[in-house]
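Below sits our specimen:

——
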Amino acid sequence: MFYCIKENEEATLTRSFTCLLWDLIIRTNDNKNSRYYQILDKDEEQKAFKNLIYYLKSEHDFTGFSKGYGWVHAIAHCSDTLADSMLNKDFDQEMVEEFLLAVKEMLNNIDKRFIDGEEYRLADVFINGFKVNKISSSSFINWIKNITFDPYSGDLLEYYKFNN
């Protein structure tokens, strides 16, 4: 997940698709009907959750689609995995808070507007948090209030951050 984290292009593909593999592992690990149910012990599962959160705030390649590589989608793939992780009973309130901080940091670091649906995939994490009562309306509103993007700024980057 952190393969050549300072590099883009092919390295980002490795990181991005590693997130999708983790999604499969996390969903399978939590599926009582799977023969691989709880193949990860609690410590391994917790480490996977923490790594995903850390990866979300660490990724710097925000490419959605590349003419040379196809779908890169690192933020979208990480979000898909975090959306499924949010449904896991062991993704606790502390991790929810870490996730919220990571999203805020990622949004502060982004250098362009999402144009390939990444924002919808990220929203799925929040939606799942609402569904399982891990994110309340009031905590979400407070989180939004603490984000200080100015959509009326003359700075285009500030506008992109707000829209994301």
About this structure: The longest strand covers residues 65-66. The beta strands are 65-66, 70-71. The longest helix spans residues 10-29. The two ends are 23 Å apart (CA to CA).
